[in-house]
Design brief:
Blueprint: H1 5-10, E1 14-18, H2 22-35, E2 39-43, H3 49-56, E3 60-64, H4 72-82, E4 91-95, H5 100-108, E5 113-116, H6 121-178, H7 184-198, H8 203-212, H9 225-228, H10 236-253, H11 259-270, H12 291-306, H13 317-326, H14 334-342, H15 344-353
Parallel strand pairs: 1-2, 1-3, 3-4, 4-5
This protein binds ligand C2E, succinic acid (2 copies) and fe (iii) ion.
Modified residues (4-aspartylphosphate): 64
Keywords: Coiled coil, Phosphoprotein
Protein name: Response regulator
Length: 362
């Protein structure tokens, strides 16, 4: 049997025929089969259309207009409500005597073309071929778009992940110098995220805070070992030099266009400010201190107290919490201290999670 090139490319597409007249269905089936189409399904009961449409997933519908139970217009209306707006699903109307008005109505409802009875085989094949060709182009286009969207989404996610990992690794750089465990940054940032969430930050801000807070002490990179790693108390001069880490860190992070680094800048600059105005570098007071920095201040000190440092041993959780409570309204934002106390079980949970196993980047 001779197959035109066109049919060869389209013969795998699925054609559905719906006509209440069974002999019409058979004639059409035979004509299409003889032309080489391989997937043809005929039906006569229009009430089954949705069921068949969903299970058979046709690429083209040959549809009769006048039928019992549900006529062709109702079928089109129903399909229109079912099929996605953007989906190109061609419908070829089978009509015996078509007046202008019903043609217009059919076109409005989504019909693409018409074929008259009695059927002329070459006309039928031409019209079916044209619609299937369009359908195939549409399907390919949709597939390409989906692949493209998928790729863009993957790239974006990968890029974001890379950025976050770099930021975290940068945060850890400082830990390699001033302590052994490597968990301070992880605990601190998770405490901060938990406290931020409980204080009413939205999820996006919480995520930014989780990452941005890892850089709070980045300025310590510039502090010499004999100060940073000094086993005992710092003298006033050394303390002065140590305090410069806030401004140095801010300088390293300033003028960023990304929200996360902007937040990291704010935190690095202001995490040693105190609620009563006695902190550094600027002696800001109360709500003049950015909220994220007030959050990090509580979490940083809690973790410093409960950790061993070259200059101090670790305090118990209870002693550390008591110290935070005693400094409420002095060092710390009293409202945040209250919230910290309320979520203390969650804080301790984080403390446990980031104390015995290796830091896992997430
Ligand atoms: P860090 O060890 O990460 O401590 C962060 C903050 O936690 C300190 O900020 C302080 O507010 C609080 N903190 C830490 N340990 C204690 C403590 O034993 N008692 C009380 N009440 N608070 C504590 P601060 O004071 O501005 O210090 C900033 C950084 O300077 C510290 O970061 C640490 O790296 C260094 N540092 C501070 N004091 C000493 C010291 O006496 N000896 C040495 N070697 N380093 C110090
Ligand atoms: C870390 O440095 O691992 C804590 C930050 C995070 O897990 O996002
Ligand atoms: C807030 O300001 O959003 C509440 C937490 C605080 O800053 O005390
Ligand atoms: Fe600091």
């Amino acid at each position: 049997m001779f197959l035109s090139n066109k049919v060869k490319q389209l013969q795998h597409l699925k054609i559905l025929i719906l006509d209440d007249n069974g002999s019409n269905v058979r004639i059409l089936e035979r004509m299409l089969q003889m032309a080489g189409y391989q997937q043809i399904h005929g039906m006569t009961d229009s009430r089954e259309i949705l069921h068949v449409y969903e299970s058979y997933k046709p690429d083209l519908l040959l549809l009769d207009l006048s039928m019992p139970y549900m006529d062709g217009f109702e079928v089109m209306q129903l399909l229109r409500e079912t099929i996605e707006e953007a989906d190109y699903f061609p419908i070829l109307i089978i009509t015996a005597h078509s007046d202008q008005e019903s043609r217009l109505r059919a076109l409005e409802l989504g019909a693409r073309d018409f074929i008259g009875k009695p059927f002329n085989q070459s006309e039928l094949l031409m019209r079916v071929g044209n619609l299937l060709e369009l359908r195939q182009l549409y399907v390919e286009l949709r597939k390409n778009n989906e692949e493209l969207e998928q790729k863009v989404a993957e790239q974006t996610a990968l890029w974001k992940e890379t950025q976050m990992e770099l930021v975290q690794r940068l945060g850890h750089v400082i830990e390699f110098r001033d302590e052994d465990t490597g968990f301070h940054i992880a605990r601190m940032s998770h405490y901060s995220a938990a406290l931020g969430r409980a204080a009413g930050l939205n999820e996006k801000a919480v995520e930014l805070l989780l990452h941005a807070s890892t850089l709070h002490d980045i300025g310590k990179i510039a502090i010499p070992d004999h100060i940073l790693l000094k086993p005992g108390k710092l003298d006033p001069e050394e303390m002065e030099e140590m305090r410069a880490h806030a401004l140095i860190g801010a300088d390293m992070l300033k003028d960023s266009t990304t929200e996360m680094i902007q937040m990291a800048y704010t935190i690095a600059l202001s995490h040693h400010e105190k609620w009563d105005g006695t902190g550094y570098p600027y002696g800001l007071k109360g709500e003049d201190i950015p909220l994220v920095a007030r959050i990090v201040a509580v979490c940083d000190v809690y973790d410093a107290l409960t950790s061993e440092r070259p200059y101090k041993s670790a305090w118990s959780d209870e002693d550390a919490l008591a110290c935070i409570l005693a400094d409420s309204g002095k060092h710390f934002d009293p409202q945040l201290v209250e919230i910290f106390l309320r979520i203390f079980p969650e804080i301790q949970e984080i403390q446990r999670n980031y104390s015995t196993v290796e830091v896992v980047h997430q």
